[in-house]
Amino acid sequence: MREMDDRIKILSDMIAASSRIVAFTGAGISAESGIPTYRGEGGMWNRYDPNIYVNIDYFMRDPSYYWSLFHDVRYDVLRKARPNAAHAALARLEKRGKLTAVITQNIDGLHQLAGSRNVLELHGSTRKIYCLNCGARYTIDDVHELLKKSNPPPCPNCGGMLRPDVVFFGESLPEDTLARATEESENCDLMLAIGSSLVVYPAAWLPQRAKESGARLAIINRGSTPLDSIADVVISASAGEALNAVVPGGPDS
Ligand SMILES: [Zn+2]
């Protein structure tokens, strides 16, 4: 425990000394809000085959499988999920002018719900849905209503095919978002990698890029990562507890 306190102190000092912090977040931060993780025990991919569920070729052929899982499972999860202490701490850091961006692999929109403004969603957002034909945009509530009548749900505006604004398997990451994420990583003075095992591209690459560009690197994750050896501090703990300790709430929060 003593050692943990020391690490918390080290990270607190790093945050105090930094003015351009960037956070990189993965599934671990969302898991603390009740969003199931993908891999590992109890993960989504143990129950649903990602090669069908989030494969772009399959989706274009038969979107009903995606939408039935959305209707039966994901919608409720998204509606009930609330940002946790970790999301809130990052929003506080941004409000205090110390954090410039949150780069996330998550598609649940919880950073925005917590009040973060500059959120770079590398894999898009499952809360945003648009029509492939006319471009009209819809919320998850809209589509949940449409699904009560028809699956797949037709665009109310033109009858076209709807899709979530997420990156499916077989699609590349949005170029502009990745470019901005790279720029933020290269220009930060402290990179906080939170709740990611840092193995999936570009998860490993962006924090490494930050470190190579002269930033300090702090990793908060349950379980080791390939970047632990180059990190300035590694905290193996809950993201909520750790961030709450290093970013105390204040009158501004
Ligand atoms: Zn349309």
Write up what this structure looks like.
The protein is an alpha/beta fold and 253 residues long. It has 2 domains: 1-35 and 83-123 and 173-253, Rossmann fold (3-Layer(aba) Sandwich), CATH 3.40.50; 36-80 and 124-166, SIR2/SIRT2 'Small Domain'. The chain is built from 12 helices and 9 strands. The protein has helices at residues 2-16, 27-31, 44-47, 50-53, 56-61, 64-80, 85-95, 110-114, 140-147, 175-187, 205-212, 239-246; strands at 21-25, 99-104, 119-121, 124-131, 137-138, 162-166, 190-194, 216-220, 233-235. The strands form 2 sheets. The chain has a 6-stranded parallel sheet, with helices on both faces. The chain has a 3-stranded antiparallel sheet with strand order 5-4-6. Helix 6 packs across helix 9 (140-147). The longest helix is centred in the N-terminal third of the chain and has 17 residues, at 64-80. The relative contact order is 0.19. The model has no long low-confidence stretch (mean pLDDT 92).
Q: Strand content of the residues, in percent? A: 15-25%
Task: Report the bound ligands by name, code or SMILES.
Answer: zinc ion
Apparent shape: elongated
CATH architecture classification name of the largest domain: 3-Layer(aba) Sandwich
SS summary, helix count: 12
Largest sheet: 6 strands, parallel
Strand order of the largest sheet: 3-2-1-7-8-9
